[in-house]
Specification:
The chain is an alpha/beta fold. It has an 8-stranded parallel sheet with strand order 9-8-7-6-5-4-3-10. Strands 1-2 form a two-stranded antiparallel ribbon.
Length: about 325
């Protein structure tokens, strides 16, 4: 496994992030534990989750699965850089209640204590804001975060799904307060969806944030969706972003060109999608959310995959990026 620093911090993390969103809804507890053990054996030390994972009536279930895994001992918790998130409403469907979501100081305090209990740990290494909160002043958010850091409940704060200007506003507010500020941004970024290159990633680089791409295969679209469809299909390739794209003739032709290019070079689409992100400036590591052990093993192989200049040029030709801002939309 290869490692890098998370943004401007001294924290060393693996260049592959284990995403746990499928633990509970798609993968049972025993298999989830097996995947986490295998990830640790492969050198993956960066695990990402969120308080709402488990979804529906089972919100929090994913954190609980991580908690029972940590409780098995064997230095599991000590070896893992643990990241979770706060924002979503944790109340049961139809039972929403004020102050049980978003980023008020009250909800941040309540949410972190609940996550710590589910995770069976005394601290969270990276506490991420899952979404911007248009109703809470940034000063209030940092006040709450600073208290949690002083209490030892969290070590670093990060953002997710923030615009470039919001990263700047949030870190300038932190600077004025004497707070350390955001150290990471978790954003939608992959070969198909490259808009983050315009402003989000440059802002992250300017402020020393590590970029953590989520949905690196765009909902399975970049994982050989057409190939799998031809072989009989899979649940992942016939739903969500993948199904929407394959229904569009232009997008389908683009994915076909992608798969043809990789077939020519004897490469696996899913591994290339991850490996390409590892070549991108500012990227700490993509989040791989395996449902099976085989999917984890494929993601680990991607870290060692070296893409030739010919392949990289071919990928840029098929999936041209928007270019930097403001040139992307101005002279």
């Amino acid at each position: 496994m290869k490692y890098t620093h998370l943004g401007r911090t001294g924290l060393e993390v693996s260049r592959l992030v284990l995403g746990t969103m499928n633990f509970g809804p798609q993968t049972n507890e025993s298999d989830s534990h097996t995947i986490m053990d295998a990830a640790l054996d492969a050198g993956v030390n960066f695990f990402d989750t969120a308080n709402v994972y488990g979804w529906g009536e089972n919100k929090g279930r994913t954190e609980e699965i991580l908690g029972t895994w940590f409780a098995q001992g064997g230095a599991r918790r000590d070896k893992v850089v643990l990241a979770t998130k706060v924002y979503g409403n944790m109340a049961a469907e139809g039972d929403a209640w004020p102050n049980h979501h978003k980023l008020s100081a009250l909800n941040i305090r309540r949410a972190v204590d609940a996550s710590l209990k589910r995770l069976q740990t005394d601290h969270i290494d990276l506490y991420q804001f899952h979404h911007i909160d248009r109703d809470t002043p940034v000063d209030e958010i940092w006040q709450a975060v600073d208290v949690l850091i002083q209490q030892g409940k969290i070590l670093y704060a990060g953002s997710s799904n923030f615009a470039g200007w919001k990263i700047a506003q949030t870190n300038e507010t932190a600077r004025r307060r004497g707070s350390y500020g955001l150290v990471s941004e978790q954003c939608l970024y992959n070969l198909v969806e490259r808009r983050a290159e315009m402003e989000v990633i440059p802002a992250a680089q300017e402020y020393g944030l590590g970029v953590i791409p989520w949905s690196p295969l765009h909902g399975g679209l970049l994982g050989g969706a057409i190939r799998k469809e031809s072989a009989g299909g899979s649940a992942r390739s016939t739903t969500g972003r993948s199904a929407e794209a394959l229904a569009d003739p232009a997008a389908r032709a683009q994915i076909q060109a992608y798969e043809d290019l990789l077939d020519k070079h004897g490469l696996e689409p899913g591994e290339v999608g991850l490996a390409w992100l590892l070549t991108r400036p500012g990227v700490t590591g993509p989040i791989s959310g395996p449902r099976t052990l085989e999917q984890l093993e494929s993601a680990v192989r991607a870290v060692e995959l070296e893409l030739s200049d010919e392949v990289l040029a071919g990928l840029d030709e098929i999936f041209p990026g928007p270019g930097p801002s403001p040139e992307a939309f101005a002279w």
